[in-house]
TrEMBL record:
Taxonomic lineage: Bacteria, Pseudomonadati, Pseudomonadota, Alphaproteobacteria, Rhodospirillales
Family of this protein: Belongs to the ABC transporter superfamily.
One Pfam family in the UniProt entry: ABC_tran
Transmembrane segments annotated in the record for this chain: none
Keyword hit for ATP-binding: yes
GO molecular function terms noted in the UniProt entry: ATP binding; ATP hydrolysis activity
Domain ABC transporter residues, every copy: 31-264
Biased composition (Pro residues): 17-26
Protein name, as recorded: Nitrate ABC transporter ATPase
InterPro entries: AAA+_ATPase, ABC_transporter-like_ATP-bd, ABC_transporter-like_CS, ABC_transporter_ATP-bind, P-loop_NTPase
Amino acid sequence: MGPASQRAALVQAAAAKPPPGPEPHLQPPVVEVLSAEKSFANGTRALAPIDLTVRAGEFLTLIGPSGCGKSTLLKLIANLYEPTDGRINWWRGDFRKVGQDGRRLAFVFQDPTLMPWARVATNVRLPLDLERVPKPQATPRVAAALEQVGLGHAARSFPRQLSGGMRMRVSIARALVTEPNLLLMDEPFGALDEFTRNKLDDDLVALSWERKLTTIFVTHSIYEAVFLSTRIVVMAANPGRVFREVVIDEPMPRGDDFRTSSRFADLCRELSAALTDASIASQGKGAKTPCAR
Ligand SMILES: Nc1ncnc2c1ncn2[C@@H]1O[C@H](COP(=O)(O)OP(=O)(O)OP(=O)(O)O)[C@@H](O)[C@H]1O
Ligand SMILES: [Mg+2]
């Protein structure tokens, strides 16, 4: 099966799935940010106290002017930073709950950060090697992760032989191979052309639906935020804070029907207005207005 037909099969399989059980607001919290704030040693107050609950199955997007603390918030949620005050709960407990059954998290950065000397399959296997998963068990998991991102045929290629979009797919496969329940993505498709980005967005919608992933995603693109998300948190800067929320209550999985609908255009307009307000509220102190891609 070629990559295009794999993608179609994935979208079809996802479309055949029944809708999830309880309403999103009744799902258990995966991450609770409880008055968490962050200042850096040089005195920068990156985040004022933030309160945010992310529930199972949500696709939550953070958007806002440059410097409003999106990456900082994502790193707090990944436990890469300690909050200066307040705290974060993961699966209603502390970070030690991560790694238990059904409580895994994975992080995808803007740069795919692949090992150039290693083949694609070796790159994807890295997290399993770090966990000392024996090769006979790791190999089928790597193959499955590569199939899921439509790169089953590229397992033996080197990163330099792949396009930018394919390299990002490898990076996503490397995250999926750990079978995460919570996926954190910081502008993963920001460096890609619009056509490739739309394709990866389509796949991500299908994947997160299929795998019942909880996803926290950062982007500067209004279109991408509206297409992917069940909820969008608009942030303002100086200091970084939650400014407004926009709920996208459109059925999942989504495709071109949604992307070309008047409802999509209306939601993009609503989000664009919220971003303009957030930029004004950021008082322009070094904050740039986000562009619509
Ligand atoms: N390690 C650090 N040390 C000091 N200041 C930092 C550090 N990391 C981030 N900052 C500052 O914290 C603020 C928030 O930065 P952050 O990278 O989270 O913003 P962002 O919303 O992700 O921006 P962008 O959209 O440009 O990626 C900025 O003022 C930034 O300069
Ligand atoms: Mg950032």
